[in-house]
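Example 4.3 (complexes with small molecules)
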Amino acid sequence: MHKNIAVVILAAGKGERMKSETPKVMHKICSRPMLAYVLDLTRSLKPGKTVIVLGYQYEAIRKELPPDITAVRQRRLQGTADAVKDALLKLKGFKGTVLVLYGDTPLLKKESVDKLLKYHTENKLDATLLTARMNKPKGYGRILRDKYSSISAIVEEKEADDFEKEIKEVNTGIICFNKASLEAALKKVRPDNRKKEYYLTDTIKILYQQGKLVDGIKIADIHEAIGINSRLELARANLIMQQRINEKFMRSGVTIVDICSTFISYGAEIGRDSVIYPFTVIERDVRIGKRCSVGPFAHLREGTRVSDDVTLGNFIEINRADIGAKTFIKHFSYIGDAVVGARVNIGAGTVTANFDGRSKHTTVIKDNALIGSDTILVAPVKVGRGALTGAGSVIIKNIPDNKKAVGVPARILKEKR
Ligand code: UD1
Ligand code: CA
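Answer. The structure with uridine-diphosphate-N-acetylglucosamine bound is encoded below.
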């Protein structure tokens, strides 16, 4: 634990540019609120204390937070400097480094923040910025440097003149401060800008003018620095995060045939030598075993467990279901609320009718069963071990082991399968 580091996360804004009722930081990237990624990063840094500044929908976000994080409410959203001031109220006895993170910068990686913290402490700086060189810097605060090329200020896009707008080096928003220097500078920040806000970024000019030590390091991969203000940036961030997730799976031994059309949620698990074909969606809390084949056009929804050597073919939706080893479900089927055994073969167009209009019911299909094409299994229902259903049958009664059921509604035949 780094007792002398406190993390402040700014997340009070509504996110006007999102045009949404949902607070910006709760918008999802690969099925997870963007704030969750910032919280992961924070936890990985092991700070002595973490304070998050919330405002818009304070209660709704606060109750989702882990208990070790202190939330503070910013009453009026008067800007990032005002937000940091509110956070400092919860850091009264703390001395050391205050690391400011923005809740809308979810792609940031631990390695970059570690570098920043190291540079900041080794050089005993008052403020250290994480900057990025962007070809299209629009929307970001620009880094101004003096004739010795030392950082002298940050100018916000709205305040920048044409010359300053040409500057490609931007503020990522991630800044390390010496707490005492930060407090002193915050007192001097005035809302004398177009937005009439207290800008945290103004502290840099203030510190520079006081002769304090301000420096910055450039982030290696600018993708990490994307701040999400609009749905366009949300989609961009989603793409980058998806790529990271897909790459992680590929590195662990999963084949992803087309990385651009494979959508795997954060937190899903896939075993070695499984192959994921294009246009497949795998939601969170899905676990897939080894040597499976999934897709193309498959949708695996939350709570699905797939054992080893399973084939899930095209146009398959699996929802809250367990699929046993070596089972085949190869062509357009819906399997929901089901427990399917090992070596089961499910024919094309099979549907588990799991919802009766009021509640969901379970379908159980035992090992080695053979489900004929176009079978409707009206849950709750059980298909016995080694049993068979005829093509087009509608199963409303349990089928004993090794028996055959056919028709609409299905009759169980006397003879063995
Ligand atoms: C900010 C920086 C800009 C930087 C960019 C990087 C300022 C003034 N500008 O601009 O230099 O290049 O981020 O992405 O800091 N927030 C609060 N309370 C407030 C206002 C904002 O908590 O009163 C939070 C927001 O919820 C958000 C973060 O602070 O998570 C940044 O605010 P935002 O309005 O997105 O700032 P930008 O215009 O992106
Ligand atoms: Ca932003």
